[in-house]
Sequence to fold (313 residues):
Amino acid sequence: MAAWSYATSVITGVLLAGALLQIWLLLRHALTRRVVRDLVLLAALPAVLFGALYGMGLGQGKLRSGPAFDDIYSGEAIGVMWLYLVTLAALVAWRFRSEILPQINEAVLLIYNVLVLFVLLKIFIAVRTDTFTVLHGLLFALSLPMLLTFLAAFIPVRLGTLWDAGSYVWFIIMGVLLTLFQFFAGMMAAPGGPWWGLTRLLMLGMLTVYLIVQLTYLVLLIPVRAGGSTYRWQLARVREYLRFLAGRQHGVQLRPRYALVIAVTTGAVLALNARWNILPSDILVGLALVATPQLATLRSAQAPPFDPFAPST
Fold:
């Protein structure tokens, strides 16, 4: 029982550490006493709830021991921790839906596009089928926004607010797709030693927060009637939200040669890593996924806070 309890503590601790690390990365430029206080409250309330439910669920069986019970005990503890992380991520994404939104630029979009292309090609090669499948349809559906984003990176012309909003929505969609792939790839990957296992657990905690945050922004783009509001008001809210998203994209254009260097370097790193297996591909893609938006964080041109559910003025 002691060995299983130790392993369970390590797993849950690493998952929690990954989630807290990702929350810090997303909010590190907006940390104030009020933000820290709200974060503590958001973390404490579901912790008390899930802790009570977990204690009541296992309270009658804690005196028993043996391999079968150890498996159940470990599985339930890890499951409760993962549900807690999902709940915490949803609360953080909802409370800080303005502050947590990262600022991006063309370099971030370019790197994300290369990551999506690498992942799709990796899946496409692994399937090895000549018949039309959902993967073929997904590749064709994603090819147009990928092509447009690539071309825009090499055109030294400002394309306007509508393009900025659309490219930011595409950034969110790419984040969701890449995160879902990371969940699948991490579960299907070989253990490869305890260090890679712990690294995947840390990435799982980070990507859980990342996925819930990105899904929150997609949900906010849906004009759903709520609280007696009309569709007209909801459409106006979505338009305001799209303008807010457009303001989170830095307007400086990349020089074409810099765009070429970024695209070629990113693709080369991914290809060489896949060829020589320096790092597991899922870990490398996960690191690039969560680290790339941090490289574009700027102290200037910060958009004012926006509440997508505030009454229109």
